[in-house]
Specification:
By secondary structure, the protein is mostly helical. The chain has 3 helices and no strands.
């Protein structure tokens, strides 16, 4: 039961980090696409450029937390 709770906390934390990264990228994309904006890359689009400039570190942390959470939830608890 303890591993399951830790896994659920990790999954919830990853959802919060992922959501905050997406929200911050969407707010920053308004700056990139504005009239006097900084410009954006045609290959990624406005939102993709904003997501890259906000940073890939939150997305990497999110993926690692999801993997750890799923492993902890899927692994059965041992009661020795």
């Amino acid at each position: 039961m303890k591993n399951t709770n830790i896994g659920l906390v990790l999954l919830l934390s990853s959802a919060i980090i992922f959501g905050s990264a997406l929200i911050s990228a969407s707010i920053y994309s308004l700056t990139l696409g504005g009239v006097d904006g900084q410009g954006w890359n045609n290959n990624y689009g406005v939102f993709g450029t904003a997501l890259l400039k906000v940073g890939t570190l939150p997305l990497l942390v999110t993926v690692l937390l999801v993997i750890a959470g799923v492993v902890l939830i899927a692994r059965p608890d041992r009661e020795d």
